[in-house]
Design goal:
- This protein is an alpha+beta fold.
- 17% of the residues lie in helices and 43% in strands.
- It contains 2 helices and 7 strands; from the N terminus they run βαββββββα.
- It has a 7-stranded antiparallel beta sheet.
- Strand 6 and strand 7 form a beta hairpin.
- The chain is globular.
Amino acid sequence: MTKTLDFKFERTILASPGEVFDAWMNPEVPGTTWQKAEKFKLDVKVDGLYYWHINGKSIYGRFTEIERPSRIQYTWVSPNTLGLESTVTVTFSKKGESTLMTLQHSGLPDHELAMGHEKGWTHFLDIFPNQFGMRKSF
C-alpha cells in the first residue's frame, strides 16, 4: 500500500455556518481557492466539475458531497498531486456565535510536491476569515 499524506486545518470564524459555507463557494470572496484563478469553471452540484488555472498550473476535480450549510467534499487533482486524485473535505460546525471551519485534504501522495499543499491551504485559510470582520481565533 502506498503511503499518503493528510492535512487538517481549523479556523473559527465569527459568522453562521451558512454564511461561511456560502462565502467558501463564492469565487468573488478573497481567500477561496477559486478567487485567484486566471481561468475558471465552477459547477457547484454533486458530480459538478470545477477547474482553475493559476501561475501555469491547472487544478480540477468534481464535487462528491454537498450538504449546505455543514459539509462539502470534492476531489482534487493538480501537478502537486502528481496527477493523482485526492480529496478535500470542508465542514462547517456551529460553535457558539461562530463557525468552526475544518478543511481536511487527504489521500495526497507522500511526495515533496504534495507537501506544498500545507503551505497553500494555510495561505488561503489565513486570508479567508478576514471576509467576516475580526478574526475570532485559530
